[in-house]
Amino acid sequence: MKVQEKAKQKTPPQSAVLEYEQQVKYMKITVEEMQSRLEKMTVTKGLKTWAYILHDLDTDGKGGLKAPHYHVIMIFDKRKDINSIAKQFDDEPERVIVRTKDPKTGKRQSIKTAIDNALAYLCHETSGAKAEGKHVYPPEKVKANFDYIAWAKEHFETMGSPKDIVELVGTGDLTFKQAKQRLLDEFGMYALSHNLKVLSDGAKVYNDKIYENWQKRMKEEKHDVKVIWIYGFAGTGKSHFATYWADDEGLTYKRLTSKHLFDDLRDLSIEEQDVLIFDDFRPDTLPYSSILQIFDPLNVGVSLDARYYNAYLMSEFIIVTTPFSPYEFYQTMHIRNRKVDTFEQLSRRISVTFRFTPEDIYVVEPKIQRYVDNLPIYKYVEIGESSPNVWSQIVVDDGKKRIRSLDELHLVSQNAICRELKKGQKKSSAMNEKTDENEDIDAESENLPF
């Protein structure tokens, strides 16, 4: 009986080097939440170093793929028991591995050896993993709170030949941009120039495949592209709001400038472009027909011209920031036949429109004010209540800049306007109704170029 009681009270294994491993389908928390908890543990648990990777190309020895799973390496300032760390992931202690013991022999190894082996195993760069023929992952796939790529260059015997790097682009393990940098850093300018075309060809083959899968998924799940239009004077925080909202929703984003609008898209994976921000968008940036194509919610998966090869737009959100309301934007564009290429074509593609002033944010919608030459003239009217513009750089109260607290930022980002934005609700059917002449009209839309 005493032996049994003693066994029950046995201290759980402890180590300063631990690994959490779990299949994606069994994880209790999202990857974003996992990283957030790792960052929190650096403050609350003495976690000095962390790194993790998704293994989604491991083979099972029978020609098939193993279930995708994550490896998370954690290095603490002192030993931690596996029970307490497992709780950080809402998981069981058996999912946490003591890395100061050799995984194969069970023999103890030094902290330094344990750290080197654990970090190298993330990419299957240990001697044991290589002997077993495990798939080798590029260091760029690892997420860490330190420069893992620099560490890998110092510790791995080889980072691959130019041919190996080219192959990684074709499998999607490296982006076009990452591969170019690897070739330049490791093999020099000659190797880069010699392999540049095959790199671009490999990236195009991979993007074609990903695009087809993404488009199929979007159509099957009946998703569409949601367009958010934000307009107002310079300094009213339009771009700041766009990036803050994407971060707050846990979405990746890419800011595109008018000068080279789509050049960087070829370097992006699908995971890096949840949101595309058309920053400071101008009427002379794209032809009207191209804008309609890109904004068409049913035309998911648009191929865009870029310098090296076509880049695919695979984003679920497009945010436009501009000084112009959608109607002002349309009126300023060079359009040959406005009876054919109407404003309504653009308007119905926009999920929600915000007007930013130095002090407030308004949700607005277009309404017909009058007709000129049988063409409707629109002005924007406010709908619902406004929200304080805490992103504005020009707001002053009694000559002093308004204090913006983090709590206030969070409150505004979670208000009803943002919920409406995320749902992609369409403007009301009242868009085509004529407004009363005495109705309160957006003052910025008074000087229309017609």
UniProtKB/TrEMBL annotation:
Domain Plasmid replication protein origin binding per the UniProt entry, residue ranges: 42-147
Superkingdom to which the source organism belongs: Bacteria
UniProt cross-references to Pfam families, sorted A to Z: Rep_OBD (PF01719)
GO cellular component: extrachromosomal circular DNA
GO biological process, one term: DNA replication
InterPro entries to which the protein is assigned, alphabetical: P-loop_NTPase (IPR027417), Plasmid_rep_OBD (IPR002631)
Residue ranges, annotated region (Disordered): 423-450
Biased amino acid composition, Acidic residues: 436-450
GO-annotated molecular function: DNA binding; DNA topoisomerase activity
Protein name per its UniProtKB record: Rep family protein
